[in-house]
Amino acid sequence: MEPLTKRQAEILALIRKFLAEAGRPPTRAEICEAFGFSSPNAAEEHLRTLARKGAIEMIPGLSRGIRVLKTPRGMDAAEPGLPVVGRVAAGSPILAEENVEERYQVDARLFSPGADYLLRVRGHSMRDAGILNGDLLAVHRTSEATSGQIVVARLDSDVTVKRFQRRGHTVRLLPENPDFEPIEVDLRREPFAIEGIGVGVIRTRPR
Amino acid sequence: MEPLTKRQAEILALIRKFLAEAGRPPTRAEICEAFGFSSPNAAEEHLRTLARKGAIEMIPGLSRGIRVLKTPRGMDAAEPGLPVVGRVAAGSPILAEENVEERYQVDARLFSPGADYLLRVRGHSMRDAGILNGDLLAVHRTSEATSGQIVVARLDSDVTVKRFQRRGHTVRLLPENPDFEPIEVDLRREPFAIEGIGVGVIRTRPR
DNA sequence: CAGGCAACTGTTTGGATATACAGTATTCGG
DNA sequence: CCGAATACTGTATATCCAAACAGTTGCCTG
Questions:
Q1: Does the N terminus or the C terminus of chain A have fewer Cβ atoms within 10 A?
Q2: Which of chain B's residues have a Cβ under 8 Å away from the Cβ of A203?
Q3: pLDDT-derived band at B148, boundaries 50, 70, 90
């Protein structure tokens, strides 16, 4: 998005505020009133500029036909909420369309660092970490992890959730359930990638 | 709010949908188009009825001057999201202002039945049910529970989370951790009330 | 069976709104 | 110093829109 001048940013902020408080986009006249303009054309030209720069969309002929488009960062404001990723097809990117089951609107402030998606956990290997079969793991996308963190890892073509431990060329993926065995990966010989780190859990039904 | 007829509920649903998808309230004409009406007066009369019944507000003279008012259950537009209840002061209602730490916007569709608030769980007595110290328990407000459900119960002036079991005049509150002892309550002699049932869990940091 | 209500059709009107056109002042890069 | 862009004033107008008025149909209730 092209950069906005200070005044243009003020206009955009007003549109957002109006939308949030009144539940409808402002008219040219209402923008004028808010800023003290005496001509509706002042508002009209600001709107045209904002539309040209990609900040808003104007629907011709409609009253209050203003739409605020995506926010500067976080390209995916068009699809609000966090995507729920189920079984990940072998070889496909984790957020590929085919893997997304649904989207849930969840407050970003809940997790830090912020969650990028929710992964539906299969199996009981993380039971003792309080992550049960069917739970949604809130995942922050990153390829870096430190020992002790819970990671979403990709092995060959399998995606798994385990506690991460690294020693030199060896990565150990530790389950949190004595019934399961740790996985050892030799980074020099086997494919391995971290898809993200666990930053939270959402369980949608009680146990 | 006065009950709506089927048709009126459809109109209200359309307004909500329009608002969510287009980002602005519909005009009379747009309502007509959506339902196949050939007279704007059909929409006008529906809107008047909805306004009279308290479902919407109409601002006279303004184009698209429709506001959807609070929905029947606990989520009013003024205070969006679910309140987080921390330590509950003895004797005070669980949702009293002083007990609410914060509010988080969380998609209502996540839980069924719907969650009314989030209770911050203290202690480890429900560890084996995957509810850890510091977790947020999503609670559906009700005073009824069936055996086996996880309940938020009030004993004397203490609020606790346990698995519910009832036998005649006796209620047993079962922890999910062998280090803790079950609590027995004789309903004829001791104060006891169910505040709600657990419908989900949110953990905001990994373990 | 009369009367009320829900759910429409059809028409009209004044005010609300978007939008074009004609100017003015200021700033800024070339 | 000139042209372009920003940031406005002021005026005008076709169209959008809310809202009123006059009917119709079917259903339910007393």
A1: N
A2: 130, 200-202
A3: very high
Q: How many CB pairs under 8 A join A and B?
A: 108
Record: contact A206-B106, CB cut-off 8 A: no
- Residue spans of alpha helices (H) in chain B: 6-22, 28-35, 40-52
Across the interface, which of B104, B198, B207 has its CB nearest the CB of A130? B207
List of domains in chain B: 6-68 (1.10.10.10), 82-202 (2.10.109.10)
A25 phi, psi to nearest 5 deg: -70, 155
* Residue-wise pLDDT tens digits, A7-29: 888 899 889 889 888 999 999 99
- Per-residue pLDDT tens for B111-139? 888 888 999 999 899 999 999 999 999 99
B110–A104 CB contact, under 8 Å: yes
- Residues 6 or more apart in contact with residue A156 via CB below 8 angstroms: A190, A191
Q: Which residues of B touch A67 (CB under 8 A)?
A: 22-23
Query: pLDDT of A65-101, one tens digit each?
Result: 999 886 543 333 345 678 888 876 666 777 766 677 7
- In whole angstroms, what is the distance from residue B201 CA to residue B126 CA? 12
